[in-house]
Amino acid sequence: MNKEVVRKVLVEKGLKVTPQRLVVINTLNEIQNHPTAEKIIEYIKKNHPNIAVGTIYRTLETFVENGIIKKVKTEKDVMRYDVVTDHHHHLYCNECDYIENYFDDELDQLLMDYFKSKKLPEFNIREINLQIVGSYNPHKQKQG
Ligand SMILES: [Zn+2]
């Protein structure tokens, strides 16, 4: 997302364009790869020490509520944030905590068809997000 797009996204969601919100969203775009709140705070504090931690947390929550970003939960119960809101799955490495986005339209179709045929009573499926757990071989030491 470039700066213009970022502004547009905020305006479209009816959110006021504040310097703090711009910093948080730009940071999310820069760090990529599903950062934790701590990582986001650490990154922001380096360049903008005047932004309060509480503001950063609140801003993240606001973005989640407005569908600008998504929360991702890992096996370790640590909340991570995802700027990619297009439907995708995650390949999660439980050795190094790296999360890779996994896009697969064929799989999406297969899953939807499968559950359509199962006819779950009293449950409407909105979306199916898989977290595929494993480790990279050879194991990559990536920061994610
Ligand atoms: Zn993702």
Task: Give the helix/strand layout.
Blueprint: H1 3-12, H2 19-31, H3 37-47, H4 53-65, E1 70-73, E2 79-82, E3 89-93, E4 99-102, H5 105-118, E5 131-134
Parallel strand pairs: 3-5
Antiparallel strand pairs: 1-2, 3-4
Bound molecules: zinc ion.
Please explain how this structure is put together:
By secondary structure, this protein is α+β, with helices and mostly antiparallel strands. It folds into 2 domains: 80 residues, Arc Repressor Mutant, subunit A, CATH 1.10.10; 46 residues. It is built from 5 helices and 5 strands; from the N terminus they run ααααββββαβ. It has a 3-stranded mixed beta sheet, with no helix packed on it. A two-stranded antiparallel ribbon has the order 1-2. Bound molecules: zinc ion.
